[in-house]
Amino acid sequence: xxxxxxxxxxxxxxxxxxxxxxxxxxxxxxxxxxxxxxxxxxxxxxxxxxxxxxxxxxxxxxxxxxxxxxxxxxxxxxxxxxxxxxxxxxxxxxxxxxxxxxxxxxxxxxxxxxxxxxxxxxxxxxxxxxxxxxxxxxxxxxxxxxxxxxxxxxxxxxxxxxxxxxxxxxxxxxxxxxxxxxxxxxxxxxxxxxxxxxxxxxxxxxxxxxxxxxxxxxxxxxxxxxxxxxxxxxxxxxxxxxxxxxxx
Length: 248
Prior knowledge:
Elements: H1 2-15, E1 29-32, E2 39-44, E3 48-56, E4 64-68, E5 71-72, E6 83-89, E7 98-103, E8 106-118, E9 126-132, E10 137-140, E11 150-155, E12 158-159, E13 167-171, E14 176-180, E15 189-197, E16 200-211, H2 219-239, H3 241-247
Parallel strand pairs: 2-8, 9-16
Antiparallel strand pairs: 1-3, 3-6, 4-5, 4-7, 7-8, 10-14, 11-12, 11-15, 13-14, 15-16
Domain Ig-like: 23-112, 120-195
Main location: membrane
Keywords: Disulfide bond, Glycoprotein, Immunoglobulin domain, Membrane, Transmembrane, Transmembrane helix
């Protein structure tokens, strides 16, 4: 009886699944520059930032990975285990971008740094525009800056007086436009878009040339006249066909 009971227990144990032990991440945390939560870091364009990611409460060596947005950052072999440092040469393109340090074996363990990059307006050069009289024209003066800039428009180096119904100004965080309705010869000149912020200013010139309005040919009248001429010729030939046949 004991032998039979032992065999039964052995068969039951043989059929029971083996327990799989997955690694535990309980208690493991990350910090970036001593911050355990996501944070925003202000920096000037052209500066260099150093970010240091540190594993805390770990019981074994942990590998770290860095991301810039959705793309990975290349790290040297000795810069991945338990502590990882990256240096960022900050540009205006980094404004609003998140740099994230993650635990490689469980990427839900992470800390992100969102960059708040400050930079002045970037405007330069000039543009020449030709427009016919009575046509509308829009001068586009687009420039990003942080903090956001404000645009001032000049004509021939004098502050532009905005005539109602003729001039319209449109502005967003990085778009500055001046629209002129039904351009006139008096609108000829150089228009300057000056964008100012707390960090500096940028400017762009627009040379506007208003040309004489080209005459519009009455297409329908020309076609009608051509048809009349053609019919006249045909009727003339038909009327004189008797004389034409006698000649032949």
